[in-house]
């Protein structure tokens, strides 16, 4: 088996996710893109199929698999409906898996099963209007202790699943004077009083994956919903960000695989000058470049997922894992940009038409170069780790 090749069990999981994506998720993609429509029933049904809570243990309603398996599901889904894939990873990794890795046994038993069976949809509430790349230093949302509860005040922006979430993993300042050392993590019931969806954001790409601004005004959250000790939320946050970056890469891989497939089909069927354009060497050159990029993206993505499979809770944000996850998402997003550029050029005028699938894929790239830390932030992380004495 070649390095980072898939075992039979992993291959079967990817094939199953691909089949479900092709048969059940692909038919949703056009309407999601056209209308920013959210397929609520279809998403929640994934829980009954065993595709929510992939990393959660069976006793909590999950599949009991690992991060690598979760990445394969995301890769398979993203081939056919990358917008739903993004919402899936926000639910399953950014919210559910982070809670699973950092919560107490009591919290896990209370919060995880609904996220696994689809009765609850999760989101991560981190980014704010004034706190994007500087998510820690510029965080303005506060949580003030008041008896057996914390009182939340602030706003969160660009929150994937924000309009549809039932449960949020939220970060807030509990000690404003301590900077990043004064942040705590909370599980928030999105039906609580004082929470408002102030706007639903319509996007260029990943349309249908719901993105929102959320406002918290004197929202009371029980102390029992604080994850870990007060002012130690940064431990949960940083390891979560490393896993988030590792899990963005499978989205890139899935989109790239589909773009190559569509480009080959189009090159074989499109005729100019009396023959398929696949006969022209310039088209062949682009297809060859796309193939090389897709293959290397896949291998490096798998390498990162394997390396971070057993990342201990609270150990992210530094060292090899920090550098590796940033490298993986930097490389796969940059390579996907090149793949999609080739793909649209091969499709010619068809690729420039909004309603085509290749155009929908092309519009996805910018988010993947911005989310989970921009390209620039990823480079800073890599350079900082390289230059450490």
Question: Main attributes?
Answer:
389 residues; alpha+beta; Butyryl-Coa Dehydrogenase, subunit A, domain 1; Butyryl-CoA Dehydrogenase, subunit A, domain 2; Butyryl-CoA Dehydrogenase, subunit A, domain 3; 3 domains; four-stranded mixed beta sheet; four-stranded antiparallel beta sheet; 11 helices; 51% helix; globular
Overall description:
This protein has 389 residues and is of the alpha+beta class. The chain folds into three domains: 8-121, Butyryl-Coa Dehydrogenase, subunit A, domain 1; 124-227, Butyryl-CoA Dehydrogenase, subunit A, domain 2 (Beta Barrel), CATH 2.40.110.10; 233-386, Up-down Bundle (Butyryl-CoA Dehydrogenase, subunit A, domain 3), CATH 1.20.140. The protein is built from eleven helices and ten strands. The protein has helices at residues 8-35, 40-48, 67-80, 82-102, 105-117, 233-269, 281-307, 319-347, 357-362, 365-368, 375-386, and strands spanning 122-125, 142-146, 149-160, 167-173, 183-189, 195-200, 211-222, 226-227, 271-272, 275-276. It has a four-stranded mixed β-sheet. The protein has a four-stranded antiparallel β-sheet with strand order 2-3-7-6, covered by helices on one side. α4 (82-102) packs antiparallel against α5, α4 packs antiparallel against α6 and α6 (233-269) packs antiparallel against α7 (281-307). The chain starts with 7 loop residues before the first helix and ends with a helix. The model has no long low-confidence stretch (mean pLDDT 96).
